[in-house]
Inverse folding.
């Protein structure tokens, strides 16, 4: 589904070049839950921004469903994002002037779907994510967890191919984080959503099927969960983090 | 760096958003100073007796302006406090005491206020010169620049300015002093929590207010004092009801019409709009009321100005007009003698105006147009008098031939009278119509050359005619002086004959000029302040939301919405926001001006003075000021969000 081939990203001018991404390559298969981990400044958000077409790569190719993002004309990028990508942000990014239903429906609304379709699809996804009871409420009237579920619902309601999540648990308490991660797992397992999540939290990462560790703009290591329990996987992540020498303090 | 400097620097960084407010305060202060300058200007005061009442009227207008400015300053200070609460809270967090921060905010605002005051006084001097030039021109006096700086005017302006500013700042200071850090840091958020409410009561209010709005508009259009008062009351209730319930009515409407919600940019436009109006419903209604008052002030000012100008213009072809039912009356002969002896007359004529035998044309006019009947019969004039008067006025010669009559009328009756083709009888002659003339001929009011029209017939047809009144008209070498007019008026005032009529052009022109200065200018003054205040509040609110717009724009872009569509949604919402308070104001204002204008005697407000033209000019002037604010706001939105 997603193929990242030898991408590089440089910032600055010729006198002062910062290499944010250095020849990164990996694939994400359909219905896979992948996490990118790394310390601050390791390049994980830059990588996510490049995949989400918000930023451009300096070299290399990113293919989603066989389509090369780097070659897409600027005029097509918006269409590409609304049809193929779903986003879950750390601060929910719900519009406070819209109800939860309308916030979820936004992804369909900008795809010019008709009102009935919007209502039906929003209803279905809300039921699956157990927020159908708060659809007519405004974001300020619901809990943080409900807001995050609404953001998740928005990310998949239009049948987007890939859900990109940037530190989605960053603003949540441990209970709400757990809930959200279970929802992401449910979206991945039961609804077949392909998820690419960026986090520096080992606990959050342990919910994924595969973890790519980034250090100084390069892939440093890769972990596959396989048949291991989440708890075992979590400890393995901590071991790798210890090797990385970075974010261990963040997780214990 | 002192904390004051730090805080002041912070304030300056945010100044861009409040520049509009600052400029408005400077402008209002400048207007106050300029009008106060008129109060203390001896040169202006001595132009006419009537101008003696000008100070009272200007002070009265200024008190209203102080009230409006007070609202503007209080509202904006509170608003700035909300926006800067996090910063002020941080000062307390790092160890400053509440009263120190309160003092800081107070001093900072006082410094800004002081600066605005000084700038206002300086630009007020220029405005004063403009007002002075206009008033001198109205009195036909040539303008020469004389620098004048009235300390008394500065003092009076300060007297208005100080309480307004101090009151708002002290309120702000009190608020900070009593606040906790938490309140300050989360002050902004607390306000934003109350975004949109849903309540069936509000939906009811919305429905009732819309009904009242329609009823009020109809009543205002029907006109009349009682309907006007009731209609205005309905409109005021409508405005407050409508704007305070709009945000609840929109979700209700969307629930009913789900299919329309996702059409075009409806969802984004109306949701954002209703959220904004939920926060400022009462303010929005007040702004609509201010706009209404603006249009009414401007429109009625312009109508009064045109009424005075035109009434005089209808008679102003002659410098002096004296008329009497009885030409032998001592008052008449004395006045005419006084004019001949004491005023340098270049040309004059005394003649009779006659009552005709029939009233066919008067009846015809009465039945076909709005015409105030004064004479029972049609009014006639001898051809020889007519020819002489035309010559005196420099009009091209026109004379009825044998067996003919000419109609001379006010322009508004010309169309109807050109269709009149019937003969009239006078002194045994049957006369046929031979054309219509419409030059200014003193046909307004009563004992002059007919009420709106007269018939000019051959002399022989009036050989035995019945005299209606006798006229004496004169052209003078120089304008009649105020004391000469007063003397003539004194002679006339002794008279018991109600048919006596005196018109002195120079005096009436001075009267109109005074009227402009004491009634029309203050109305424009009020109108300008009202527009600027209301537009400033709208613009401050709009500008302060640009962060929210920016975030919304960024999110929608990420979600894949086309840039073009987002910009269109923003523009639509922007336009509706600025149009909402204007639409009801225009409806009310226009119907008021039309009604006010229709109360004038027929023919006075015609041509370029027609009420519809007045409406056009009023709206033109209003939008000229309003559009400046809209463009400022749009420029910022475009620069900081769309680009």
């Amino acid at each position: 589904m997603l193929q990242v081939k030898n991408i590089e990203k440089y910032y600055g001018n010729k006198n002062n070049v910062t290499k944010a991404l250095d020849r990164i390559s990996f694939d994400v298969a359909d219905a896979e839950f992948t996490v990118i981990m790394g310390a601050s400044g390791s390049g994980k958000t830059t990588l996510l921004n490049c995949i989400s077409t918000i930023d451009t790569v300096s070299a290399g190719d990113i293919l989603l469903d066989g389509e090369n993002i780097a070659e897409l004309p600027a005029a097509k990028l918006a269409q590409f994002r609304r049809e193929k990508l779903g986003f879950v942000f750390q601060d929910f990014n719900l519009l406070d002037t819209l109800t939860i239903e309308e916030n979820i429906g936004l992804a369909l609304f900008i795809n010019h779907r008709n009102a009935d379709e919007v209502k039906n699809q929003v209803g279905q996804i809300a039921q699956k994510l157990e927020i159908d009871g708060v659809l007519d409420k405004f974001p300020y009237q619901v809990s943080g967890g409900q807001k995050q579920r609404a953001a998740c619902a928005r990310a998949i309601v239009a049948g987007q191919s890939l859900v990109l999540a940037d530190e989605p648990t960053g603003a949540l308490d441990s209970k709400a984080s757990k809930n959200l991660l279970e929802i992401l797992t449910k979206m991945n397992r039961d609804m077949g959503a392909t998820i690419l999540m960026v986090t520096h939290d080992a606990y959050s990462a342990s919910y994924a099927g595969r973890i790519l560790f980034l250090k100084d703009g390069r892939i440093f290591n890769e972990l596959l969960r396989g048949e291991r329990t989440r708890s075992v996987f979590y400890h393995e992540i901590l071991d790798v983090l210890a090797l990385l020498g970075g974010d261990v303090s963040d997780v214990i | 760096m002192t904390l004051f400097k730090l805080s002041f620097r912070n304030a300056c960084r945010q100044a861009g958003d409040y520049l509009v407010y600052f400029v408005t305060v400077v402008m209002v202060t400048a207007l106050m100073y300029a009008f106060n300058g008129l109060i203390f200007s001896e040169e202006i005061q001595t132009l006419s007796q009537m101008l003696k009442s000008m100070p009272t009227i200007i002070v009265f207008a200024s008190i209203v302006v102080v009230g409006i400015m007070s609202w503007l300053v209080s509202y904006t200070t509170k608003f700035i406090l909300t926006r800067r609460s996090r910063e002020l809270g941080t000062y307390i967090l790092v160890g400053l005491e509440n009263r120190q921060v309160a003092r800081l905010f107070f001093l900072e605002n006082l410094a800004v206020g002081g600066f605005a005051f000084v700038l206002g006084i300086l630009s007020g001097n220029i405005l004063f010169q403009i007002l002075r030039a206009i008033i001198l021109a109205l009195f036909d006096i040539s303008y020469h620049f004389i620098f004048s700086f009235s300390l008394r005017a500065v003092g009076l302006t300060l007297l208005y300015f100080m309480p307004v500013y101090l009151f708002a700042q002290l309120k702000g200071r009190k608020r900070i002093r009593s606040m906790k850090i938490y309140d300050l840091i989360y002050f902004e958020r607390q306000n934003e929590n109350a975004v949109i409410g849903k309540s069936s009561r509000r939906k009811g209010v919305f429905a009732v207010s819309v009904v009242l709005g329609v009823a009020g508009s109809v009543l205002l259009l029907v006109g009349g004092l009682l309907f006007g008062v009731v209609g205005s009351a309905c409109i005021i209730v409508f405005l407050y009801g409508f704007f305070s319930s709009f945000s609840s009515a929109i979700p209700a409407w969307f629930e009913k019409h789900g299919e329309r919600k996702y059409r075009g940019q409806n969802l984004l436009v109306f949701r954002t709009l209703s959220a904004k109006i939920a926060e400022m419903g009462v303010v929005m209604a007040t702004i609509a009321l201010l706009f209404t008052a603006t249009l009414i002030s401007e429109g009625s000012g312009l109508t009064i100005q045109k009424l005075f100008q035109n009434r005089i213009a209808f008679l102003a072809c002659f410098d002096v007009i004296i008329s009497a039912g009885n030409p032998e009356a001592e008052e008449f002969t004395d006045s005419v003698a006084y004019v001949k002896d004491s005023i340098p007359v270049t040309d004059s004529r005394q003649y009779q105006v006659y009552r005709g035998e029939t009233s066919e044309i008067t009846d015809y006019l009465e039945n076909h147009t709005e015409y105030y009947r004064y004479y029972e019969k049609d009014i006639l004039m001898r051809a020889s008098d007519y020819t002489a008067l035309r010559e005196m006025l420099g009009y091209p010669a026109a004379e009825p031939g044998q067996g003919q009559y000419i109609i001379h009328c006010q322009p508004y009756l010309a169309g109807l009278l050109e269709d009149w083709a019937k003969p009239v009888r006078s002194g045994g002659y049957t006369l046929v119509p031979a054309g219509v003339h419409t030059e200014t001929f003193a046909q307004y009011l009563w004992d002059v050359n007919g009420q709106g029209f007269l018939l000019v017939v051959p002399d022989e047809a009036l050989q035995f005619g019945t005299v209606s009144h006798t006229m004496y008209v004169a052209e003078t070498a120089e304008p009649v002086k105020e004391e000469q007019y007063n003397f003539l008026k004194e002679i006339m005032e002794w008279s018991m004959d109600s048919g006596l009529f005196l018109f002195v052009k120079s005096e009436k022109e001075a009267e109109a000029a005074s009227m402009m200065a004491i009634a029309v200018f203050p109305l424009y003054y009020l109108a300008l302040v009202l527009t600027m205040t209301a537009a400033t509040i709208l613009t401050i609110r709009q500008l302060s939301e640009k962060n929210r717009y920016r975030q919304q724009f960024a999110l929608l872009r990420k979600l894949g919405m086309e840039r073009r569509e987002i910009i269109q949604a923003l523009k639509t919402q922007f336009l509706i926001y600025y149009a909402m308070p204007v639409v009801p104001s225009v409806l009310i204002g226009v119907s008021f001006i039309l009604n006010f204008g229709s109360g004038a005697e027929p023919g006075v407000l015609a041509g370029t003075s027609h009420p519809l033209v007045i409406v056009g000019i009023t709206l033109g002037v209003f939008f000229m000021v309003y559009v400046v604010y809209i463009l400022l706001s749009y420029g910022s939105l475009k620069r900081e969000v769309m680009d």
Observations:
- Residues 2-251 of chain A form a domain with the Rossmann fold fold (CATH 3.40.50.300).
- The mean pLDDT of chain A is 85.
- Chain A touches chain B through 33 residues (CB under 8 Å).
